[in-house]
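Tutorial handout. Part one gives the primary structure; part two gives the three-dimensional structure as tokens.
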Amino acid sequence: MDATPVSEYTLQRRVTFYEADPAGIVHFSNYYRYMEEAEYGLWRSAGVSLEPTGEYAFPRVAASFEFHAPLRFDEEFSVCLQIAHIGRASLRYACRITRGDTPIATGAMTLVCVSARDMRPVPLPPERLARVAVSTR
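Part two.
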């Protein structure tokens, strides 16, 4: 494993046919899928899975976006996901979606580590935390 913890991940993507409405504009709900796709990429790049185990689960407790410009069918875009805050049992991401230099959307998402047995918050697993860090950008 790389000694430097992962703090951000950038997903490069193209808008597919099914993500756009009849006018060719991406439906807002897809932005949350893009952010989640980047989240899995971030953790994979850190060598860790967020798959629930018999011990832990990681439900998302908050997610939001502000939209700045439309994204259209077949356009290439980037999703940059950064770890913005690490708490005792929670982790918050900041997300920027861009098309080249054009800001498309900015968002955030928070997950909480819970006991799979009773769904109560528990400290984030130290072996996973050792692989990530808060972004300094």
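Part three, for discussion. The CA atoms of residues 42 and 84 lie 13 Å apart. The helical segments are 29-45, 126-129.
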